[in-house]
Every structure is written in C-alpha cells, then in structure tokens.
UniProtKB/TrEMBL annotation:
Mg(2+) binds at N199, D213. Pfam families: ATP-grasp_2, Ligase_CoA. Residues 262-382 form the ATP-citrate synthase/succinyl-CoA ligase C-terminal domain. Gene3D superfamilies: ATP-grasp fold, A domain, ATP-grasp fold, B domain, Succinyl-CoA synthetase domains. This is Succinate--CoA ligase [ADP-forming] subunit beta. Coiled coil: none annotated. HAMAP family: Succ_CoA_beta. Heterotetramer of two alpha and two beta subunits. Residues 3-203 form the ATP-grasp fold succinyl-CoA synthetase-type domain.
Length: 399
C-alpha cells in the first residue's frame, strides 16, 4: 500500500526525520488560509497523488503570495495529474500540501528498499538528488552509494557516517544525516515498509538536513498489525477495479487488453497471461479466486470481471486442487443465468471433480465454450473474440 507524501512526512517525523513546516488543504481557499497560518513569504504547493514526477508534470508550485497559492490550487484540484509514473489516464488531485519553502543548497537522493539477493534492507543514496533513481543509475551510476543492514544489529552509526562521507556531506552535518538515516531505517523495519524514498533530501542554505519529499510503501500482508497505517489508505488513488476486488477479498490486477481472466493462483495467472499473448490476444486483467472458492465467490469474481468495461471475452482457467471444478462450474452457470452476457465465455477446468464440473457446464445448455488444455483455452478465447469483433464490424458496416 502506498501513502501520500504528507502522510509519509508525518510518519517519518515521529522517527526523528525533519521536513519543512506544512499543512494539508482540501480546497484553494483552505490552501491560501494554511499559508497564512504557516507564516513566511514563500510556500510550495504540492499535489498529493500516489506517484512521483509531480515537479516536472506541474504538480509542484513555488508561490510567493496567498493569491498565487489560490491560483495554483484552482488548476490542481479535481484535475488529473499525468506524470511519467501515473500512466496516460493520470491520478485525481483531491488534496494539496502547502509547505514553507526552503532555500536549497544541495539535493541528495535517499532510498531504503528490500534487497532480495542479500535478504537485507538496502540503503541507496546518491549525491545527485532531485533526479529519479532510474535516471541516476543510467547517467551517474558512479554517484550511487549502497549499504546493506545486518538485521541482528540494525543500522549502525558508523555505517551512517560512512554514507554521509561518501556523499560528501560536511562534517558539521553528519550528526543530522545519522539521525535521518536511522529514523528512516527504524520506520522501515518497525512499520513493515517495503520502500522509503526521500528525493530530494536537502541541505538547506542554513545547514539543516530536511526531507523535501517522502514516499513510503507498506507490505499489505503486514497491515493488520499497523492499524494506524491502514487508516492512511486513499482509495481515490487506486485502480477502482483493484480496490473493488480487494474489498471482496479477491486479488485483481488490471491490465490494458480485452480478455478478462478468472484463474486460481498467481502462477497459473502468469501462465494464462503468457498463453493468451502467445495466441495473439491481450489480457484485460486477471482475477485470482484463491483456493476453496464457493460457487458464490466464483459468481462474485465473474461479475467483477464483467464490470470492467475493457472486457470483451472471458476465460475461466481453473486448475483445481483445493478448489472444486463443480463449484466453479456452478458459479459460472449461476451468473450466466442471471445476467445476459453478450461476449464469448471460455471455460477450462482441470483437477478435483472435473467430470462433475464438465457435466454441470454441458447440462446448463448455455453457450459456454469448453477447453481441456490451457493452449486450447487460450486459442479458443482469442479466436472467439476475433470472430466477435469481425461480426461487430460487419454489423456496424451494414447499418
Ligand atoms: P516529485 O517531482 O513528485 O518528486 O516532487 P518533489 O517533492 O520532489 O518536488 C519536485 C521539486 O520541487 C524538488 O526536487 C525541488 O527541486 C522543488 N521543491 C520542492 N520543495 C521546494 C522548496 O521548498 N524550495 C525549493 N526551492 N524548491 C522546492
Ligand atoms: Mn521527489
């Protein structure tokens, strides 16, 4: 789960990481008022979306009056901010963060990630702050400093000092760097984060080490033990298809094609995507029904996939171990009896109770296309979709 910049700054502040004074606003009026509350002469107005690259996309404005703040916010609120991280549809701006502007002397990149190779938390830092880490590693790879943390002892002070020296930070500022690094590390481990990124971490003209931006991502599977973090979820920043599924206890991944996929297990989902692509099709999504899915759960999954406007054909691919093919078949039949589905539906069942499942599908009298192997299923759904599209074109041409 991702959180907003202002939330990450608040979380990190409780671990001793300093950021500029700021306040949240839900409207242009409020933003202007907030700046007067904060005091000072220059402020930065920042669109709160779950994506980086806001600066280059017009989501960050430095303003020197409350009217300038109002005007900047007028443009931001309700708009979709399109950055190189959001995809072309952008992300809605419903909150802005107003901060006192600081005079920047130096910008540093700082990131904490989980390094799967060493099985440790890895610190990635660079003296080239402000640029994205991908750019830095492409253009200035020699500027990158890496360090891994031994979990039994945690992040040691000498490591922090080493990082600070490698970044060329003045000796007088090293203590502030140590506090920042250790604060981030503690926040990362104590809150089960999977990523903490401060870009840029700045050294101000008056020698303060300050987090000017902050990003945190948390492990969904550990959220149950951090209710104060789960509360920070903002559904307006999620793919509505994915949040609807999450609310129903289903795993849904939205994609850009037009074949909806109902599968069980992530591995089978991947294989199904690949096979569809190999057959010349493009998946619209995949929905993982998990294990032991009841007919009701299957029906729910089916309706969810149907509600995705991109979907023009459906492939149900179940390799049943804990699942039961008869329950899956019942769920599919239940939905197709309830709703008029005017697109091809291909069902491939294998494993537990497959004979009963096939019987239920055959006895239903519904136009379900059956397949026995994954290859066959993928070929049939792509073929059926293509036929459907061709017919659609003919009908439009005739009318
Ligand atoms: P991002 O583009 O989404 O990563 O947003 P950031 O929060 O990193 O802001 C983008 C850029 O705006 C930063 O790299 C800074 O150069 C600039 N910026 C942000 N806050 C301030 C500030 O208080 N003072 C000044 N001078 N520049 C700022
Ligand atoms: Mn940034």
């Amino acid at each position: 789960m991702d959180i907003h910049e202002y939330q990450a700054k608040e979380v990190l502040a409780s671990f001793g990481v300093v950021s500029p004074d700021g306040a949240l606003a839900y409207s242009p009026e409020q933003a202007a008022y907030r700046s007067r509350e904060l005091g000072g002469e220059r402020w930065v107005v920042k669109a709160q979306v779950h994506a980086g690259g806001r600066g280059k996309a017009g989501g960050v404005h430095v303003c020197d009056s409350d009217t300038a703040i109002y005007d900047a916010c007028e443009k931001l609120f309700g708009a979709k901010l399109v950055t190189h991280q959001t995809g072309p549809e952008g992300m809605g701006v419903y909150r802005v963060y107003v901060e006192k502007a600081v005079a920047i002397a130096r910008e540093i990149y700082l990131g904490f990630v989980l390094d799967r190779t060493s099985q440790r938390v890895m610190i990635v830092a660079s003296s080239e702050g402000g640029m994205e880490i991908e750019e830095i590693s492409a253009e200035k790879p020699e500027s990158i400093v890496r360090a891994t943390v031994e979990p039994a002892v945690g992040l040691r002070e000498f490591q922090c000092r080493q990082i600070a020296f490698k970044l060329g930070v003045d000796a007088g500022l090293v203590q502030q760097m140590v506090r920042t690094l250790q604060g981030c590390y503690r926040a990362f481990t104590e809150l089960d984060a999977t990523m903490v990124e401060i870009n840029p971490l700045v050294i101000t003209a008056d020698d303060q080490v300050v987090a000017l931006d902050a990003k945190m991502t948390f492990d969904d599977n550990a959220l149950f033990r951090h209710p104060q973090i789960s509360e920070l979820r903002d559904k307006s920043q999620e793919d509505p298809r994915e949040s609807r599924a999450a609310d129903r206890g289903l795993n849904y991944v939205g994609l850009d094609g037009n074949i909806g996929c109902i599968v069980n297990g992530a591995g089978l989902a991947m294989a199904t995507m690949d096979t569809i692509k190999l057959a010349g099709g493009e998946p619209a999504n995949f929905l993982d029904i998990g294990g032991g899915a009841t007919p009701d759960r299957v029906a729910k999954a089916f309706r969810l996939v149907l509600s995705d406007k991109k979907v023009q054909a459906i492939l149900v691919n179940i390799f049943a171990g804990i699942n039961r093919c008869d329950w899956v078949a019942e769920g599919v039949v239940q939905v197709l009896r309830e709703i008029e589905v005017d697109m091809p539906v291909v069902v491939r069942l294998a494993g537990t109770n497959v004979e009963q499942g096939q019987k239920i599908l055959a006895a239903s009298g519904l136009p379900i296309i059956r397949a026995t192997t994954l290859n066959q299923a993928a070929e049939r759904v792509v073929q059926a979709w293509q036929n459907d599209q061709a017919q659609g074109v003919n009908m439009r041409a005739a009318s």
